[in-house]
TrEMBL record:
SUPFAM superfamilies from the UniProt entry: Nucleotide-diphospho-sugar transferases (SSF53448)
Superkingdom of the organism of origin: Bacteria
Gene Ontology, cellular component aspect: membrane
Stored CDD domains: GT_2_like_c
Name used for this protein in its record: Glycosyl transferase
InterPro entries hit by this protein: Glyco_trans_2-like, Nucleotide-diphossugar_trans
Length: 278
């Protein structure tokens, strides 16, 4: 079976990390194509992309004049490639030389699957959000604190841990599955689109899992730090869209109204923290 991988990277103001991210991808085993879609950066990101593209024919980039969102940009990158395996990589993720190739080899016998890996920061701390459950909006209403937590614990007893959802920072899946479920939902601008993709993979009969013994370095949120209000707005907007797509039809009108209120009340509660950090 052809295990060639296209790495799809979406950038926005990513000049501080995209150099290392692309060099790691270019050096990685199994990478046949690299597609970078830039969402209107005004820093040096596009200059870096041009330099890498001039040195490596596998690298091509699309420079969007505006920012259509993470999901839409990922779809653009996939459409401009042909490899049978798709790896979605954040611009602040640094892969090891064999990580994606090994993950692809493990994915092949699973058939329809969406796989991720462990993610650690610069200090070696694991990201709790790598393994996730589906959002439970009734639990959020009953207990706004604990009910909103999606992180699942790592199971040290297994190499491949099956979970409801994984982080969108590193994802690998077969193109055939991606095409069958219709790709990323471009109605999301930022956040919750990865939860949506995982749920639709499972709905199509696929499995979602984390390879616990593989890991990447994730610097985390470099572009998000420059626009915290934008990120928080779209994070909560994404949750509301997710609820509408997967749960709203099963809930009464009072519950739908309560969920809407809870989501946006939580958004308002973030404002003092964002102002202090500004």
């Amino acid at each position: 079976m052809n295990l060639a991988i296209v790495a799809v990277v979406v950038t926005y103001q990513s000049s501080s990390t995209i150099e290392d991210c692309l060099q790691r991808l270019r050096d990685a085993r199994g990478i046949a194509e690299i597609r970078v879609v830039d969402n209107g950066s005004v820093d040096d990101t596009v200059d870096i992309l041009q330099r890498h593209a001039s040195h490596d024919p596998r690298v091509r980039f699309i420079a969007n004049p505006d920012n259509p969102g993470f999901a839409a940009a990922n779809n653009q990158g996939v459409a401009d490639s042909s490899s049978p395996w798709l790896a979605f990589i954040n611009p602040d993720v640094m892969v090891e030389a064999d990580t994606l190739a090994v993950l692809c080899e493990r994915a092949q016998p699973l058939g329809d699957c969406l796989l991720g890996v462990e993610q650690v920061d610069e200090h070696g701390r694991a990201d709790d959000a790598v393994r996730r459950r589906d959002p439970d909006f009734l639990a959020m209403l009953r207990s706004p604190g604990s009910g909103s937590k999606l992180a699942l614990a790592r199971d040290p007893q297994v190499a491949m841990q099956y979970v409801p959802a994984i982080s969108g920072a590193v994802m690998l899946m077969p193109r055939a599955l991606f095409d069958r479920i219709g790709g990323w939902d471009a109605g999301y601008r930022l956040h919750a689109e990865d939860l949506d993709l995982c749920r639709r993979v499972r709905g199509a009969g696929g499995v979602v899992a984390i390879a616990n013994d593989l890991q990447v370095l994730h610097v985390r949120g470099v572009s998000s730090r420059s626009r915290p209000f934008f990120v928080e707005w779209h994070k909560h907007r994404g949750l509301w869209r997710y609820f509408q797509r997967f749960e709203a039809r099963q809930r009464s009108l009072p519950v739908r109204v309560a969920v809407w209120g809870a989501i946006w009340a939580h958004a308002l509660l973030q404002v003092p923290r964002l102002l202090r950090a500004a």
